[in-house]
Amino acid sequence: MFDVQALRNAFPILKREVHGRPLVYLDNAATSQKPRSVIEAECHYYEVLNANIHRGVHTLSQEATDAFEGARDKVRDFLNARRREEIIFTRGATEAINLVAHSWGRSQLKPGDEILVSEMEHHANIVPWQMLCEATGAVLKVIPIDERGALAAGAVASLINPRTKLVGITQVSNALGTVNPVAEIIRLAHQVDAVVLLDGAQAVPHMAVDVTALDCDFYVFSGHKLYGPTGIGVLYGKRSLLEKMPPYQGGGDMISQVTFQKTTYNQLPYKFEAGTPHIAGVVGLGAAIDFVLSVGLEAIAAHEDRLLAYATQQAERFEGLKIIGTVPGKASILSFVLKGVHPHDIGTILDSEGVAIRTGHHCAMPVMDHYGVPATARASFALYNTAEEVDALFGALRRVEELFLK
Do 167 and 256 reside in the same domain of the chain? Predict the structure, then answer.
């Protein structure tokens, strides 16, 4: 049994009110709320373990190091990576993508090489590649999407060619909920010796990810969408690639030996982890993974699928409402527009009813351009949401209808 009420009790913030009404939090694609176990793990670090890691011989430093590196092992197991040194801690998925663009990209690309992304990408998986193209003379190519929000039929196969050096693709669209056929994309890319970076920020909270089975070259995600802390993320990279890549930043811990004549770099993964890391955030991420696995990713996905199906049924009956992103099997994201009402007005009225959704371009302006809209309203569901909260969403939308359309 999936006991959603028991799970809700694990999230302290869900007990608060907004504008005198119970909080209905449906902005999980932007960031998820944190269970008590994650909050307590961070507090425990600061209250009991607080020390810098790796080089201290005193007890606190050794215990902090054990907690930090233990979390790395949890991430390795969570992604089913072959080796723990393939797990790099970053400030988030955005920094992880930038790390690959600067380190792998600037050392590998030359004029005329091609980078392939899709039309549905988050800005974090567009802008770093544009900057890389400006620096190297490489060319950015775009896989178009169709009106459902799926990759256009045959477009991936037609665009991948011997000039393709990297494919950067989201596993799950943050603006549409589309789940992309990443295994097939990886297979096609590897046929021309291109590497593949998967943006898994929206995937890891909703589905099991096996980077070894996928055979992706890089995989990135952020902790804060996985019920973990903000300011922490992960880059998985195949060791054969990481070993050849120059450091992204210089400083402490990423070095082996420093003289004024020459610096030699530390081994993986520390070569890419300059300076004091977000130790508490890493510990919190480890606790978040423990929490998610204790619930079960299959159970989470099934619950969220039921919520999305229920919300979609109500949306389809709501006059003037158009769903943006209608691919079957999508993740738990309902993006929509309401005829005659700007999404920002929708968000404001819903907030007055205690319902938190996201409105805007969702860092996916090309998606908005594709559909010819300035913005959408987006409700996104997590393991702690309920059918009653879906009812509250559409009850609040009736209030929008009363104020703007009648």
Answer: yes
Residues with a known catalytic role: 363
Specify the number of domains making up the chain: 2
For residue 406, pLDDT over 80 is answered with no
Instruction: Name the least confident of 32-41, 118-127, 256-265.
Output: 256-265
Look up the domain containing 51 and give its range. 39-293
pLDDT at 405: 78
List, for residues 287-332, the tens digit of each pLDDT value: 999 999 999 999 999 999 999 999 999 999 999 999 999 999 999 9
Is the domain of 250 the same as that of 393?
Answer: no
**Contacts for 121 with CB less than 8 Å, ≥ 6 apart:** 168, 169, 170, 199, 364, 366
> What is the per-residue pLDDT for 55?
83
Q: Is the peptide bond before 229 cis (omega within 30 degrees of 0)?
A: no
List beta partners, residue 179: 172
Residues sharing a CB contact under 8 Å with residue 306, sequence separation 6 or more, in sequence order: 387
Domain closes at, from 259, 293, 327: 293
At residue 113, the pLDDT reads 98
Question: How much is the average pLDDT of 149-158?
Answer: 97
Domain boundary among 278, 293, 308: 293
